[in-house]
Amino acid sequence: MLNPLQKQLLNDFQQDFPLSPTPYSDIAKSIGASEQEVLDALQELKKLDYISRIGPIVPPNKLGCSMLLAMSVPEEQLQSVAQIINQFQEVNHNYQRENRFNLWFVLIAQNSSHLEAVIAEIESETGFKTMRLPLLADFFINLGFELDWDD
Amino acid sequence: MDMIDRKIIQQTQAGLPLSPHPYHEIAKTLNIKVELVMQRILAMQRNGIIRRIAAVPNHYRLGYKYNGMTVWDIDDQYIDEMGAQIGQLDFVSHCYHRPRHLPDWPFNLFAMAHSKTEQGIKTQIDEISSILGSYSRGHDVLYSTRILKKTGLRITRP
What we know:
The structure holds two protein chains of two kinds.
Chain A: H1 4-12, H2 23-31, H3 35-47, E1 51-57, E2 65-71, H4 75-86, E3 91-97, E4 103-109, H5 112-126, E5 131-133, E6 137-138
Antiparallel strand pairs in A: 2-4, 2-5, 3-4
Helix pairs in contact in A: 2-3
Chain B: H1 3-12, H2 22-30, H3 34-46, E1 52-57, E2 66-74, H4 79-87, E3 92-97, E4 109-115, H5 118-132, E5 136-150
Antiparallel strand pairs in B: 2-4, 2-5, 3-4
Helix pairs in contact in B: 1-2, 2-3
């Protein structure tokens, strides 16, 4: 499992990763480790996929134009429809969910006309209508997600 | 936001390099000075284009296997007030107002909850439910059964 340094790095740097010429060295100093230890620990966390990435987080719709879409697809067609959808590079992620609307995916395009064109293409290639769920407001307050290490 | 800002974002979306001088490496790739890279990132943080710089945990891999998209039907009049309350719960990672599609879809408030156990997520839903009280006219929880695709942010050209 994770060692104490890895846990600390995961917990403490979900915000305020240093913007400095030597961020890993700054982190190392702040927690009493060496720069190499910090780099090794982060490398390992990345390799094990415990962190998806380190870098700037851009909220939805700040860059380009994004939209959540849902589709209701019969179970036996789900796999083939998902395959068609996933081929579009504008599809950022695609989840199967337990609901009448069982396919949920997010499109990111450069502008709204590009977005509309992709939606039209997806609907025509799959033969299914999409339900459009654009963001009307983002109630963002949390700066991090408190990880619990009880187990 | 100009071309330099866009390029900096693009270069960092796969993640900062895990080497002693990551911003220098970005600068080198873009053929600009490291001071400019850091100034631009700071400016984008100040004007909200960048929300924060972070190590982003993979909740699922860390054992948070129960991810529920909770959806609620809130009177539009109270949506901002209720959204603000739910958005600050520490187990809620995202909280959004989205449109209804009647009659198929009556829900306009979306809150993503994460837990390691099935019981944990049920407790979280109860907590949201008790905060919303009679402001909620109905709700549902959509668990993800499969991740079919997941990639980082990319900006593609039409």
